[in-house]
Design a protein that fits this description.
With about 260 residues, this protein is α/β, with parallel strands linked by helices. Helix content is about 45%, strand content about 15%. It contains twelve helices and eight strands. 2-phosphoglycolic acid binds next to strand 8.
């Protein structure tokens, strides 16, 4: 059984004290489950103090972004090299970065490569905008984002990459439209088909693909039970400990139900 990945993207919220309080509450409400990996993505500033506080049997840390050069005259930036040993994952190419900070396909590609070079697992976000969708460009956009982002990786590297499908129109920051799980299933299958064309069947099945976009504790189960969906990337709901714990619980309930089914058959 693949481990289900639940990632909480806190975006630009919570200072050190507030983050510490949230972790304390999450710790009380979330149990460690062998087949569920819970990842917290606080602001870069908070990674260091949280790394000393978290129970590593329950939580892993992710950065939300980093710069693609390892060192140099890049005022204001933090490199993946600096995040080594601090963050297990790093979100790369989130729609906020692409839209507000004009990150293009090549920059996202360089960041994916820098993450892998520094032994940090990139959580590569891909997804079409509302306009792309309206003009029937969804597949082309996903295809271009994936092929460019992965183009400098070896077959071995790709095993380590996590892909998050986040249609921009479904993210709470943008339109927050609730995506139909069936449509998401099609997009996830398409992502795997692109990976298959690039790296073959085995890797396309092994690579972890998440769904993200306004996921909350009520609808998490519907997305998590989609075929080929290995987890969720949660924004707004991850700031509420009860909702986030509820999402982890939904994953646990699904896994338990699956195990029961296996026993019966
Ligand atoms: P949301 O954010 O759950 O608030 O829509 C998802 C994300 O931006 O990763």
């Amino acid at each position: 059984m693949k481990r289900t990945l639940i990632v909480g993207n806190w975006k630009m919220h919570l200072n050190t004290q507030q983050a510490s309080l949230l972790v304390h509450r999450l710790d009380k409400h979330i149990k460690a489950h062998r087949n569920i990996e819970v990842v917290l993505a606080p602001s870069t500033l908070v990674l260091q103090p949280l790394s000393l506080e978290i129970d590593r049997r329950k939580f892993r840390l992710s950065a939300q972004d980093a710069f693609y050069k390892d060192e140099g005259h890049y005022t204001g930036e933090v490199s993946f090299t600096m995040l080594r040993d601090l963050a297990h994952y790093c979100i790369v190419g989130h729609s906020s970065r692409r839209i507000y900070f004009n990150e293009g396909l090549e920059q996202v590609r360089d960041k994916v490569q820098a993450a892998v070079r520094n032994e940090i697992v990139p959580i590569l976000c891909v997804g079409e905008t509302k306009n792309d969708r309206a003009v029937g460009e969804t597949k082309r956009v996903i295809h271009d984002q994936l092929t460019t982002a992965l183009s400098n990786l070896t077959t071995e590297d790709i095993n380590e990459v996590v892909i998050a499908y986040e249609p921009v129109w479904a993210i709470s920051t943008f339109d927050g439209e609730i995506a139909k799980p069936d449509d998401m299933q099609k997009a996830i299958a398409y992502i795997r088909s692109v990976i298959k064309d690039l790296y073959g069947e085995a890797i396309s099945q092994a690579v972890r693909v998440l769904y993200g976009g306004s996921v909350n504790d009520h609808d998490a189960k519907a997305y998590l039970s989609l075929e080929g969906c290995d987890g969720v990337l949660v924004g707004a709901a991850s700031l509420n400990y009860l909702q986030f714990a509820g999402i982890v619980d939904a994953a646990y309930q699904l896994q338990s139900a699956e195990k029961d089914k296996d026993h019966e058959s």
